[in-house]
Structure formats: structure tokens, C-alpha cells
Write a structure and sequence with these properties.
Helix content: 25-40%
Oligomer: single chain
GO biological process, one term: inflammatory response
Membrane topology: Single-pass type I membrane protein
Family: Belongs to the Toll-like receptor family.
CATH topology of one domain: Rossmann fold
Strand content: 15-25%
CATH architecture of one domain: 3-Layer(aba) Sandwich
Distance between the termini: 135 Å
CATH superfamily of one domain: Toll/interleukin-1 receptor homology (TIR) domain
Keywords: Disulfide bond, Glycoprotein, Immunity, Inflammatory response, Innate immunity, Leucine-rich repeat, Membrane, Receptor, Repeat, Signal, Transmembrane, Transmembrane helix
Bound molecules: 2-acetamido-2-deoxy-beta-D-glucopyranose
Pfam families: LRR_1 (PF00560), LRR_8 (PF13855), TIR (PF01582)
Structural class: alpha/beta
Mean pLDDT: 82
Radius of gyration: 49 Å
């Protein structure tokens, strides 16, 4: 590097003292940080600002996470107002004329992380002790001192404390003591006044400070400012910001920033909302160049050239640390181009330069080659045009030798083809920002191969823009460019695309045939998409981030896949920015709360699901049926139902009749074991009276007579069927039935219990009746399984239950028997 000083004259276009009106982005950003900390659903948000409220509404939902009641007339805050809001995380009560906050006000809101009560009339710093509080803004109140209450010791999560008053003129030694053990990262202090006193050591106690913003002036007493810098050096803060340090007509005595040279920790310095003279600038920058500063910013500065030759900064004989300079918002006091006569070495290490909001309309010739290490140049928000940026009087040998990123956003550029040509001069440029210009497509573009990133956002270009792009582009921002459709044809010219922003256009569909296998990120929010289908995203095989909020989604099956299946970690703005717009019944509903079932949405699926489900269910039923002897149970049930039905039918006949026995039991001797051990105990135990032939037959009578007697005095006749019974006993009954054929008609008085399986083949042909009974399966089968035996007993008992014992039915029964015609059989 040459040691010889080379002078550079920077000519900067002027506008006189015209304040370039810009939105106050810092406030929006601060609120946004708090918002991000707190809000998980739009449902939890209540914006009740500017409502002329005189109290906190009492009907707020207990899910409220975010409450903005600023710009109202609420004079005090107390416990009762927040008693139900236990999820409250963000509370903003600014511009309300607040005078009093009860120490217990936030006792029911333990989740509170952000509390903004700036711009009120609080006369004392209120007692606040919410453990989770991270951001506390007490700026712009009417405290008479900065004395912090003891309760602040409990704010163990506090990151940002902003405290300011238009009535406190001094900082006393013990004011910040309660914060000594609180890990405050960022302190914003002051109300923009001239401080009258600062006690040395007051801020030095806050050892955790990383960033400090001081909003105060020290005009006429910069000794106090020097003491403050010494204290901030002790805190080892890395980033300092001074707001309104030099107001209009501030008398600056001496060299207030002299201490900067011996503050080894400081890296970033921002000077905001101040008036700066070129004479002061020379003195100040000497300190900066000798300091450890890495980043210097001037924000909203009014620049007054009070030295006759403008700004002169000519010698430098040491290495400098400064790498980044920002001028954001420069108002010029004189109606002329300011002069910067500056040593080449002083800027030789600069990698970042921002010169924005300055009214510049001609880029000084030497800038292009005099900044040898510059990598990023931001000239946004000026008045540059093609001819002003490439000023005809300038002759360049090397244009921005290391420049990689150039922002020409918010200027007056128009010709894309001209710019694309000119980019060939910048041999290292990768990224160009032309957003917010008046670009039109005026002919073929030839972009250099090394350029990979282009931002054309907020220019009125239309769909044809795709034809003016380079196939080397990897990152492309086409937000708000009037695009109405994207097609594979357009995008096939961009084979290397990894980032594509298409926000705020009028795109209605992502075509299903779109294929961008290299794409990692797609922003297609604020368009006219009604749904995003699986097919549409299938072409983006590598996609990692997708932003698609703010589209008029249709909450129907079209959105089913997107809502239910898509991995939401892909989505940057889920769920806050996704709402249903149609059908009307769902309008405004958050898409994340839209529920529909897969089954009701996918026809193929319905079949695909229904079929296996049917098969599985059938198989399961079959298995259960088989495993649990469903056949047996079904048979039992069938018999039982029939018995019941018949029972009902004849209950009329039997209503007035009564019997001596519930049942007559007929069985073979071989089966007496079962009858004695099972049947009699369980039936007689349940209160049934049974006629058993061994026990109850009258000795000496012919067996058939005995049987008839027993049958006739019993409500039912129970046959215990087994092979033995068939072989030995049945003949008696066939005979009996032959004599009293009618019994077969009155068959519900007969109950058959099958003790063991009897194949019909084993039954002699002559036993017609028995064969017919077994064929019709009108018998109860004795099961081996104990549980089934319970069912068996239940069935049996219910069959015998109808009998009424008090009156004999002899006559009725016999009457019925006689009416029935004889049946022939082979006996
Ligand atoms: C508090 O609200 C005011 C007024 O809107 C805003 O300027 C400020 O940035 C907010 N403070 C924080 C820390 O968000
Ligand atoms: C609040 O009061 C002012 C003055 O009375 C009125 O102009 C304004 O419309 C009111 N705002 C609301 C939201 O009611
Ligand atoms: C609360 O009550 C006011 C009227 O007093 C009404 O306008 C508002 O919608 C209600 N808010 C909620 C969340 O119920
Ligand atoms: C919130 O309030 C509703 C009634 O408004 C109540 O049903 C619900 O239990 C409350 N939630 C909690 C967590 O207390
Ligand atoms: C800042 O602190 C360092 C040591 O921590 C010390 O060497 C230096 O003199 C201090 N500078 C000022 C201005 O107090
Ligand atoms: C700037 O110069 C004016 C006179 O031109 C003077 O009144 C003012 O105090 C100076 N301000 C600073 C910050 O140097
Ligand atoms: C300091 O400046 C650098 C470079 O501009 C920036 O990246 C960094 O975030 C700043 N640090 C603080 C604490 O502001
Ligand atoms: C810019 O600074 C001036 C004081 O120099 C102040 O009056 C004005 O409000 C500031 N503008 C913004 C946008 O902060
Ligand atoms: C560097 O320049 C300063 C004046 O700006 C001078 O006082 C100092 O002696 C010079 N140091 C060297 C090493 O040349
Ligand atoms: C810049 O400074 C050099 C060296 O002092 C001087 O020769 C030159 O005339 C100055 N240029 C302007 C425009 O003041
Ligand atoms: C979603 O994707 C992320 C990473 O891309 C992964 O960690 C996460 O497990 C996925 N979630 C589901 C439910 O697949």
C-alpha cells in the first residue's frame, strides 16, 4: 500500500436543509422484536389503540397475548384490570396520560415479557417486578429523577431497559444501584434534555451492558460527557449510540470524543439526530481513526460546512480499524456540494459504505476507484440516475475493484439494458439491488456472467421481465413487479436459481408442471393464490423455506394437503399470515385453525381406506367369531329368541294355567352324573323345581304313564340328549309322541339339551322326530367353556321362567293335545 497521501475530493449532490421525510423504522423494529417474542396466534392479539378508551376493557379474552391500548386516556393501571389476562406477554400503553401504576398491577400476568409504557405522565419510576420481563420501555415520561426502585432487582430476565424523562436533568450516583445484579444488555437513557449533572461512576456499575444509547445533550459542559465516556468504558459496552448529542446551535468546547482513542472495547458508534459542522467532523474523525472503532454511523444528521475548504482530512500514519461507515439521512445546511478532501489511506480498509438519504444526484468520480477494499456500497434513497451514477466527466481505470454488493435502491434509474451493460465494468460484482426505481424493459440485457443476484422489486415490469434476466442468476427478487403468472417456460431460463422472491404480485396459481430443482427458497406471499397443492410444490424438490402468507386461501379440500400434510417448518410466516378468504363462513379464520378430514377430501383415498378397513373389520369379526365360538353363541341366541317369541305367543293360553314343576327332565342313566352335578344344582339353586324321573316317578306305575304325568304337570320338558339317551331312552318318547302327537305342535314346551354332538346319521331312521329336531338345530348345546356355560344357564333359565306354578294346566294341555292330528311314522 502506498504511504503517500492521495487526495480524494468527494462531491456530493445537495439539497438544502430539506429534511428527507422517512418513516421512523427504529420504533417499528423495536415493537416487532417484542411482537416476535410474544405472539403465536392472531387470536391472541388485541389492538385497541386510538379508541378513546378510559380504562382497560374488562371483556378481553383470557387468551390475550398481545395488547396494545396506546393512544387512549388511561390514567392508572392496577391489578384488577389484568386479573384474567394471565397469558399476557406484550403490553403497550403509550400515549395514554398514564400517571400511576400500582405495584401489584402485573401480579396476575407472570408471562409478561414486553412492557411499553413510554410517552406517559409517570412522575416516578413505577415498581415493577415481573420475573420474565425482557423489554421495558419507560421512555418519555415525567420522572424528576432516574432513581430506579428496589423492585427492579427482581427483573432477572431484563434485556432492554429504556428510561427517559423530560423532567430529569441529572443522573445521581445511586440511581441505578438496583440494576447492579440484573443482566441488562441494552440501556436507553435520557429524555433529550441538556443534562445538568452526571455523577461519575453511576453507570459504571452496570457491568453487563453491551449497548448503551444516551439521549441527551451536553452543550456547554462536555466535561460531563467525558466522564460519561469513562464510565461507559468501565462497563465494556461494545456499542454506543448518542441521540441528539449536538442540537442546533450547540456550543462544542474542546474535543469531547478524545476518550474514544483509549476505549478498547468499543466497536460500534452511532450518532443520531444531530447537527454536525465540518470543523467538528475533522476533530471527531481524528479520534475515530485512532480508536478501536469498527463501525461508525451517522443517522439523520444535518451537515454544516463551516470550514472554508470543506472537510479536510489529509494525513494518516497508522493502521486503522474502521471498516464500515454509514451515513443514513444527511441534510445539507448549505446550498452547494459539500467538499471532502480526504486521504486515500483513511478509507483504504473500508469494506462497507452506506450513503443513503443524502440527496446525492452525481456520484463523485473518484469513489469508483478510490475505495480499494470496498465490498458493499449502499447508495439507496438518493436521487441518482444512469447519467448521475456514470457521470460523463469521469474517466475510470478500475471501477470498484473489490465490490461485491451494490445497492441502488430507491433512486431514479430507468434503463435495465444500459445498467446490464455497465455491470461488465464491475468485475467482482455479485449482487445488484435496483428495487424501488423506475426501471423499464428497454431492450436486450447482457448481464456479466459473474453476477448472480438481482433485485428488481417494486418496479413496474410485468411478466416479460423473465426474458431480460441472466441464466447465471441464483437469487432473484421480483417482488411487486406486476407479474401475473409464472410458467415453466419463463423459469427454464434460470437453471441456477436458488432464491426467488415473488411477493406482492398477482400470481394466481403455481403451475403443477413447474420444475425448479435448485430452488431453496420461494417467497410468494401477498399474491392471488387460492391454494397450494402438493403437485405445485413437487417441482421444488430442494425447497427449504417458503413464504406464502397473505394469499386469499380457499378453505376447502383444495387447501387440505397444505394445511394437514405439508411440513410447516418450511413456512417462514406460518401460521400468522395465513387466513381463509373464502368460503364466507370461514373468512378471516386462520388457516391453522381450519380443520377438515382427509377422508372427506380425497375420493381415491376413500376407496383406498374403505376397502382395507372393510377387509380388516371382516377379518377381525371372523377371527373373533371363530376364536370365541361365535357359531355356538349365535345358535344359542337363535334358539333363545325363538323360545321367547313362542313363549309370548302361548303366554295367553298359559296365562291362567299353572304347573307343579318348571320342567320335567328326561335323561339317560349314563348322563346322570351331569344332571346331578350340573343341571340340578344350578337350576334348583336358582329356584326352579324340576321333576326328575329317578327321584319323582311314582314307583310301580308304567314308565310311560309316569312320563305323561310328569310332562303334564311340568311347564316344560327338558331332554338331555346324548348318544346313550338316543339309544336307550328315546324309544319311549317316540312312543309317547305317537300317542300324543300333538306335543310336537306344542313344541315350545320341549327343550332339548345336546350334551355331546350326535351326527344325524347315527340316529335310527325311525326316530323321525328326533332327526327333524337335530336338523333344525333347535337345541341348546352344552359347552365346555365356563363362560359359555354361564350363557347356557341364562338361556335355559329364561326359557323356564314363564311358568306359574299355582294352577295345574292339565285340562288346557290335554285339550290342545287332542286337537292335533296324528302323525304317521315308522314305529
Ligand atoms: C414503545 O412505543 C413507542 C411508541 O410507539 C415506540 O417508539 C418505542 O420504540 C417502543 N419501545 C419499544 C422498546 O418497543
Ligand atoms: C375519539 O374522540 C375523537 C374526538 O372526540 C373523535 O374525533 C374520534 O373519532 C374518536 N375516536 C374513536 C375511535 O372513537
Ligand atoms: C368488549 O365490549 C365492547 C363494547 O363494550 C365491544 O365493542 C367489544 O367487541 C368487546 N370485545 C370483546 C373481545 O368481546
Ligand atoms: C378462559 O375463559 C373461558 C371463559 O371465558 C373459560 O372457559 C376458560 O376456562 C378460561 N381459561 C382458563 C385457562 O382459565
Ligand atoms: C478504558 O479502560 C481501559 C482498561 O480497561 C484503560 O486502559 C483505558 O485507559 C480506559 N479509557 C478511558 C477513557 O477511561
Ligand atoms: C456548528 O457551527 C455553528 C456555527 O456555524 C455553531 O453555532 C455550532 O455551535 C456548531 N456546532 C457544532 C456541533 O459544532
Ligand atoms: C456493529 O457493527 C457491525 C457492522 O456494521 C454490525 O454487524 C454489528 O451488528 C454491530 N453491533 C452492534 C452491537 O450494534
Ligand atoms: C432528525 O434530527 C432532527 C434534529 O437534528 C430532529 O428534529 C428530527 O426529528 C429528526 N428526524 C427524525 C426522522 O428522527
Ligand atoms: C502520526 O501523525 C501525528 C499527527 O497527525 C503525529 O503527531 C505523529 O507523531 C505521527 N506518528 C508517526 C509514527 O509518524
Ligand atoms: C485537498 O488537499 C490537498 C492537500 O492539502 C490540496 O492540495 C488540494 O487542493 C485539496 N483539494 C481541495 C478541493 O480542497
Ligand atoms: C419438518 O422438517 C424439519 C426439518 O426440515 C424436521 O426437523 C422435522 O422433523 C420435520 N417435521 C415433520 C413433522 O416431518
Amino acid at each position: 500500500m502506498s504511504t503517500q497521501s492521495t487526495s480524494v475530493v468527494l462531491l456530493i449532490g445537495t439539497i438544502v436543509i430539506v429534511s428527507l421525510k422517512k418513516p421512523d423504522c427504529t420504533a417499528v423494529k423495536a415493537d416487532y422484536d417484542g411482537f416476535k417474542l410474544c405472539v403465536t396466534s392472531r387470536r391472541g392479539m388485541e389492538d385497541l389503540s386510538h379508541q378513546n378508551l378510559t380504562d382497560v376493557p374488562s371483556n378481553l379474552s383470557n387468551n390475550t397475548q398481545y395488547l396494545d391500548i396506546s393512544h387512549n386516556f388511561i390514567q392508572s393501571l392496577n391489578e384488577a384490570q389484568f386479573s384474567r389476562l394471565f397469558q399476557l406477554c406484550f403490553l403497550k400503553v403509550t400515549h395514554c396520560g398514564l400517571q400511576e401504576i400500582s405495584p401489584t398491577a402485573f401480579i396476575h400476568t407472570p408471562a409478561l415479557k414486553v412492557l411499553n409504557i413510554s410517552h406517559n405522565d409517570l412522575r416516578f419510576v413505577p415498581d415493577i417486578s415481573v420475573k420474565k420481563l425482557k423489554i421495558l420501555d419507560l421512555g418519555n415520561n415525567l420522572f424528576t429523577s432516574y432513581r430506579i426502585p428496589e423492585s427492579f432487582q427482581k427483573l432477572s430476565s431484563l434485556d432492554l431497559l429504556s428510561i427517559g424523562s423530560t423532567a430529569a436533568l441529572s443522573v445521581s450516583y445511586n440511581d441505578f444501584d438496583p440494576l447492579m445484579n440484573v443482566h441488562v444488555d441494552h440501556l436507553v437513557l435520557g429524555g433529550g434534555l441538556y443534562w445538568q449533572n452526571y455523577d461519575s461512576g453511576s453507570l459504571a456499575k452496570l457491568k453487563s451492558l453491551q449497548k448503551v444509547s444516551i439521549h441527551a445533550s451536553f452543550c456547554g459542559n462536555f466535561r460531563m460527557f467525558e466522564k460519561l465516556l469513562v464510565d461507559l468504558n468501565v462497563t465494556q459496552a461494545k456499542s454506543l449510540r448518542f441521540i441528539a448529542l449536538f442540537p442546533d446551535s450547540c456550543h462544542v468546547d474542546g474535543d469531547p470524543f478524545k476518550n474514544l482513542r483509549t476505549m478498547p472495547f468499543i466497536q460500534n458508534l452511532t450518532i443520531e439526530n444531530t447537527w454536525i459542522n465540518s470543523s467538528f467532523m475533522e476533530v471527531f474523525l481524528k479520534n475515530v481513526w485512532l480508536s478501536s472503532l469498527y463501525d461508525l454511523s451517522f443517522v439523520n444528521m444535518t451537515y454544516n460546512e463551516d470550514t472554508p475548504d470543506g472537510f479536510q482530512f489529509l494525513t494518516i500514519n497508522h493502521t486503522i480499524n474502521l471498516c464500515s461507515i454509514t451515513f443514513s439521512g444527511v441534510n445539507h445546511y448549505q446550498y452547494k456540494y459539500p467538499t471532502f478532501n480526504m486521504s486515500f489511506e483513511a478509507v483504504s480498509r473500508l469494506t462497507y459504505l452506506k450513503f443513503s438519504g443524502s440527496g446525492m444526484n452525481i456520484l463523485p468520480c473518484r469513489v469508483m476507484s478510490a475505495l480499494p477494499s470496498l465490498e458493499t456500497l449502499d447508495l439507496s434513497d438518493n436521487l441518482l440516475t444512469e447519467s448521475g451514477f456514470w457521470w460523463f466527466m469521469c474517466k475510470h481505470t478500475s471501477v470498484f475493484p473489490r465490490l461485491r454488493r451494490l445497492s441502488l435502491s430507491k433512486n431514479r434509474f430507468s434503463s435495465l439494458s444500459f445498467i446490464s451493460q455497465k455491470m461488465h465494468e464491475m468485475k467482482t460484482l455479485e449482487s445488484l439491488d435496483l428495487s424501488f426505481n423506475s426501471i423499464y424493459l428497454d431492450g436486450d440485457c447482457s448481464w456479466p456472467a459473474w453476477m448472480t443476484e438481482l433485485n428488481l422489486g417494486n418496479n413496474n415490469l410485468g411478466n416479460s421481465v423473465f426474458r431480460y434476466l441472466s441464466s447465471n442468476f441464483e437469487k432473484l427478487d421480483l417482488s411487486k413487479t406486476g407479474i401475473t403468472a409464472i410458467t415453466q417456460e419463463y423459469l427454464s431460463h434460470l437453471p441456477k436459481l436458488t432464491y426467488l422472491k415473488l411477493s406482492s404480485n398477482s400470481i394466481q396459481v403455481i403451475p403443477a408442471d413447474l420444475s425448479l430443482p435448485t430452488l431453496l427458497s420461494l417467497h410468494i406471499d401477498q399474491n392471488a393464490l387460492t391454494s397450494i397443492s402438493r403437485e405445485a410444490l413437487a417441482g421444488f424438490s430442494k425447497i427449504q423455506t417458503l413464504k406464502a402468507g397473505g394469499n386469499p386461501f380457499v378453505c376447502s379440500c383444495d387447501s387440505y394437503w397444505f394445511v394437514a400434510t405439508l411440513n410447516k417448518s418450511l413456512l417462514l410466516d406460518w401460521p400468522l399470515d395465513y387466513t381463509c378468504s373464502t368460503p364466507p363462513s370461514f373468512a378471516g379464520l386462520s388457516l391453522s385453525e381450519f380443520k377438515t378430514s382427509e377422508l372427506s377430501c380425497e375420493a381415491g383415498l376413500q376407496v383406498a381406506v374403505a376397502l382395507p378397513v372393510m377387509i380388516v373389520i371382516s377379518a377381525a369379526i371372523g377371527l373373533v367369531f371363530y376364536k370365541c365360538d361365535g357359531v355356538w353363541y349365535t345358535k344359542m341366541l337363535w334358539v333363545w329368541i325363538r323360545m321367547k317369541r313362542r313363549g309370548k305367543k302361548c303366554s295367553n293360553i298359559l296365562k291362567n294355567a299353572s304347573f307343579d314343576y318348571h320342567a320335567f327332565i328326561s335323561y339317560s342313566h349314563q348322563d346322570s352324573d351331569w344332571v346331578d352335578s350340573q343341571l340340578l344344582p344350578s337350576m334348583e339353586g336358582a329356584g326352579f323345581s324340576l321333576c326328575v324321573h329317578e327321584r319323582d316317578f311314582v314307583p310301580g306305575e308304567w314308565i310311560i304313564d309316569n312320563i305323561i304325568n310328569c310332562v303334564e304337570s311340568s311347564y316344560k320338558t327338558l331332554f338331555v340328549l346324548s348318544r346313550h339317551f338316543v339309544q336307550s331312552e328315546w324309544c319311549n318318547y317316540e312312543l309317547f309322541f305317537a300317542q300324543h302327537r300333538a306335543i310336537s305342535v306344542q313344541r315350545d314346551s320341549l327343550v332339548f339339551i345336546l350334551l355331546e354332538p350326535i351326527p344325524t346319521d347315527c340316529i335310527p331312521k325311525k326316530f323321525l322326530r328326533l332327526r327333524s329336531i337335530l336338523r333344525q338345530q333347535t337345541y341348546l348345546e352344552w359347552p365346555n367353556n365356563e363362560r359359555k356355560q354361564q350363557v347356557f344357564w341364562k338361556s335355559l333359565k329364561s326359557m323356564l321362567h314363564m311358568a306359574d306354578r299355582s294352577v295345574a294346566l292339565k285340562d288346557a294341555a290335554l285339550g290342545i293335545l287332542d286337537q292335533v292330528p296324528l302323525l304317521t311314522d315308522n314305529m
